[in-house]
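Journal club prep — side note

Before the paper discussion, L.F. wants everyone to see what a predicted structure for a comparable chain looks like in token form. Sequence:
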Amino acid sequence: MLTISHLQVRFGRHTAVDDVSLGVGPAEAVGLIGASGSGKTMTSLAVLGLLPSGARTGGTVTVDGRPVLGAAAPAPSRLWGRRLALVGQDALAALNPLVTVGRQVAIPLRRHLGLTRRPLAAAVTEILDRVGLPAETRRAYPAQLSGGQRQRVAIAMATAGRPALLIADEPTSALDPTTQAGILTLLGRLPEHGTSLLLISHDIAVVSQICHRLVVLHQGRTVEQGRTAEVLSAPAHPHTAELVAAARAMSLEAVA
């Protein structure tokens, strides 16, 4: 579904991403882990076709066999919706505060699936139910919802066009633990509906809850990747071992 091969992203003399390779299979959830400055964001922007104009790139990125990087890649707007979708950290910033939830969820359903009138209204209700929101949520404005509810609306909008791949960039970091668990459960179900997931986070404990495989970045490079249980039980790279140890320490503090 997603193949990144020897990706490089440079800005002048600075190399933000240096020889990153990873893949996400059909209906698979993969976690992309790394600290700030590790190259996570630039890798995701390369996949989305949103790198800044000054970026120089190397390597290849394909989604469902189609190039999304380089001169042969289509315009980003042609990729979003059916091929690619994004859920970020701040759902409130992604939603229009002056438009009801129902009208916002209807936009991708109309644009990508061609739905109108009664079928459109029914689809809005169905997708809100799928993300755990009652039908009356369609009449609410974003400011009237909690942070967790807004994030569910953002996921509803991102998945309404039935994308092949969803990139979720730190989607739970601003949420309390209980709400975070609900959003992770929702994201973890996406592969059941045929959508592959690339979950980006600095927190290996969060990502490991729902991802089949983990990819660890450090200083712009891929330093380790493998099945989640294997990476957690026997990390092969020192940086991965540090991330795992930190996650365990935080878990013990939470219990205490």
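L.F.'s comment for the group: Residues 238-255 form the longest helix (18 residues). Keep this in mind when we get to the figures.
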